[in-house]
Specification:
Blueprint lengths: L5 H8 L6 E5 L5 H10 L2 E6 L2 H9 L4 E3 L2 H4 L8 E7 L8 H11 E9 L4 H10 L23 H10 L3 E8 L5 E4 L5 H5 L2 E7 L21
Parallel strand pairs: 1-2, 1-4, 2-3, 4-5
Antiparallel strand pairs: 5-8, 6-7, 6-8
Length: 221
């Protein structure tokens, strides 16, 4: 049974066996190790923390120390089948530039992030007038690594602006529950604690992947 974080498990389910994968901000390498063991992927990783890089190397993974904000520009176009950015985009200095590089270097981009439009965050701000501490905001405002707080609606708007195609979107709920969504409806933006988006710049879905869902269709939330 997988012990992966719910968003990582959902991402892993979408990746085809033998795929070329780049995991940016791969942490201790749990996802890469899972993909190598269960799907035989050709996996690479970039991780900012040297301690986590050491942990990845100890697992036998090909991971280098690097920064998503500065190092993705060195990769050639379409060199990977899937690029993964999990729970990291809100902590980057330039989310748009990072996402642009991901779409350039991979046929499919998987991005997961906390939804700062969740109703509990809205209610806390309304009632208390202070930044809340929740699962998504597990720091005080002056210590948080999250420097670009976005909602699901914000991310959909950015994807549209960049001409990215939403192949699939998943809402993350309480206790790790996941649900397929179509990202133009208000429901997940209010009720989901987080989201996963699978993006491409291709008109057709890549081989082995599900048929795409247009950004203009309604969310089944």
């Amino acid at each position: 049974m997988s012990t992966l974080r719910p968003d990582l498990a959902a991402i892993a389910d979408m990746i085809a066996p033998g795929a070329r994968v780049l995991d940016i901000g791969c942490g201790d390498g749990a996802l890469l190790e899972h993909l190598a063991t269960t799907k035989g992927v050709d996996g690479r990783g970039i991780e900012l923390s040297q301690q986590n890089v050491n942990a990845c190397v100890a697992r036998g993974l090909s991971v280098m120390q690097g920064d998503a904000d500065t190092d993705l520009g060195f990769y050639p176009e379409q060199v990977f089948d899937v690029a993964i950015l999990s729970q990291t985009i809100q902590a980057t200095r330039s989310p748009r530039t990072v996402l642009s590089h991901l779409l350039r270097i991979a046929r499919m981009t998987a991005v997961s992030f906390p939804n700062f439009g969740h109703w509990r965050i809205r209610a806390s701000l309304l009632l208390n007038g202070r930044m809340p501490k929740t699962q998504a905001l597990d720091y005080t405002w002056h210590e948080t690594p999250n420097i670009h707080l976005c909602t699901i609606a914000d991310f959909v708007a950015l994807a549209n602006e960049m001409g990215a195609r939403v192949e699939r979107a998943i809402a993350l709920g309480e206790n790790g529950r996941t649900r397929i969504m179509y990202p133009s409806q208000w429901g997940p933006n209010l009720l989901a604690e987080g989201a996963i988006f699978f993006l491409s710049t291709n008109m057709a879905a890549p081989a082995g992947q599900p048929e795409p869902h247009s950004v203009d269709r309604a969310v089944r939330a």
